Amino acid sequence: MKVIKRDGRAVEYEKTKIEKAIEKANNEVREKEKANKEEIKNIIDYIEDLGKKRILVEDVQDIIEQKLMEIGKYDLAKKYIVYRYTRALIRKQNTTDESILSLIKNSNKELMEENSNKNAVIASTQRDLIAGEVSKDLTKRMLLPEKISKAHEEGILHFHDADYFLQPIHNCCLINIGDMLDNGTVLNGKLIESPKSFGVACTVITQIIAAVGGGQYGGQSVDINHLGKYLRKSKEKIISQIQKLNSEDMIPKEIEKELIENRLKEELSAGIQTLQYQINTLITTNGQSPFVTLFLNLDKDDEYIEENAMIIEEILKQRYQGIKNEKGIYVTPAFPKLVYVLDEHNCLNGGKYDYITKLAIKCSSKRMYPDYISAKKMRENYEGNVFSPMGCRSFLAPWKDENGKYKFEGRFNQGVVSINLPQIGIIAGSDEEKFWELLDERLELCKEALMCRHYALLGTIADTSPIHWRYGAIGRLEKGEKIDKLLKNRIFINITWIYRNI
Q1: 11: part of which helix (H) or strand (E)?
Q2: Are strands 10-12 and 2-4 parallel, antiparallel or unpaired?
Q3: DSSP class of residue 405?
């Protein structure tokens, strides 16, 4: 017979554990109230005679209480119930006091080093970490099923970001930046219309990034391709201005062309500098810089490919240079992360844009960025499509909207649960059958933990994070509308992903 523990594990039934539990209660009562060995044996025999292959540990305890009362051992049953209740209280006791006080004293090593993007010494960051400790405590004691909390504590699985589970917010997202730039958005109750120039577009993106970062706890990805249109708008504006000034052709056309190119390069450089400096100096409401990934992809079918080539080149140049620290020394900034796509026209095989890839490699040699993605492999794996990963580098599966069109932006990840695969291997030893049995059980546990995140988001009102749900980052819902329809079909990473990667 298998006994199902509170954390969902199935362990071998051991009658000695029942004997020990009753004996502990026996020690708390008078002699005539004690259960003798024969009475204890009868209780055990009753449980075993049920003939069950699997039984919940709570059911075993219920049977013990019931049988003790049937034989008139009421005080003993009472002691057993009190002992059981006390153990339950211990499991649910508040655990935040020590961790919060040690955080304030800067002696909580675990919290101080948990997130490299957060400076746990700064008061504003400490405020977020304190709230996180309260959230973790409530999540463990009241919000999660006990078996999930216990599995997390024992390292069976890891329920990520429990410090944010209390709030109806999600993990990573792929910002629908194209829609927000083209159709406008709203920030802090103010309408932001579609930009008329590249520089303004870069500023708007940084403000969107800050707002998005404050309404979620994971990374965010921005596809730089959407900026090409605005660099062309700037170019057209510059051409119009210079040609107006040179309406009488007092400046030779070659000089005029050079002036236009120089003005455009200046705006390009300033715009990318705005992106880089703003992202690295912004502090969101959770006390850290926004976790941002810029997706650098030269799409051969993009009408703005030339402009986007200029933008990507400038991003790589500025990343190669780095950013000055407080001592004036150029260092590698943590953000934005860069993901560069290798395709036929830039894979160092005589392609038109090989020069950008050479710059990317030069940048990697000094700054460890960008990361690289093969367009060829992505097309093989994702039905011919190339699209950005989330900040955590995981990819959402391809999904088509109600019109049958693939949607790769305006999507998000509800949460993350990790499975402890090495532990399963250690427990299973050389028994392969046991390994797969344990893996199946724990995958079911992972699925249940992930569904906890799904149910926690159900019923969330769009107004909880307007930038996400109402003003384009993910959707454009109405005021007061629930986000439930955005939680279906296009968000989950299927649990079978774990099988495939094994």
Answers
A1: strand 10-12
A2: antiparallel
A3: -
Rounded distance, CA 55 to CA 73, Å?
Answer: 24
Distance between CA atoms of residues 208 and 210, nearest Å: 5
Asked, for residue 193, whether it belongs to a domain, the answer is: yes
DSSP helix/strand/coil, 210: helix
Cβ distance 225 to 177 under 8 Å? no
Alpha helices in 93-197 (DSSP H): 96-104, 109-114, 123-138, 146-153, 177-183
Residues 193 and 261 in one domain: yes
Cα 111 to Cα 126: distance, rounded to the nearest angstrom? 10
pLDDT tens-place string over residues 197-233: 999 999 999 999 999 998 998 899 999 999 999 999 9
DSSP character at residue 465: S
| Residue 88 and residue 101 in one domain | no
Say yes or no: 345 and 293 in one domain.
yes
The SS3 assignment for 288 reads strand
Q: Are 50 and 60 in contact (CB under 8 A)?
A: no
Note down the domain range covering 34: 2-92
- Percent of the chain at pLDDT > 90 equals 57
Q: Does 112 share its domain with 251?
A: no
Which pLDDT belongs to residue 126? Answer: 76
pLDDT reported for residue 8? 66
Residue 202 in tokens: 């870069």
Rounded distance, CA 386 to CA 398, Å? 10
| Intervals of the chain under pLDDT 50 | 490-502
Q: Is residue 384 within 8 Å of 368, Cβ to Cβ?
A: no
Any domain includes 400 = no
Query: Do 323 and 331 touch, CB atoms closer than 8 A?
Result: yes
DSSP conformation letters of 187-198: ETTEEEPPPSSH
Dihedral sign for Cα 268, 369, 474, 470, please: negative
Q: Residues 35, 41, 44, CA angle at the centre, nearest 5°?
A: 110
Which pTM value belongs to this model? 0.77
What is the chain's mean pLDDT, rounded? Answer: 88
Number of domains in the chain: 3
Alpha carbon of 177 to those of 193, 208, 386, 468: distances in Å?
A: 13, 9, 17, 11
Polymer length in residues for the chain = 502
Residue 135's pLDDT is 83
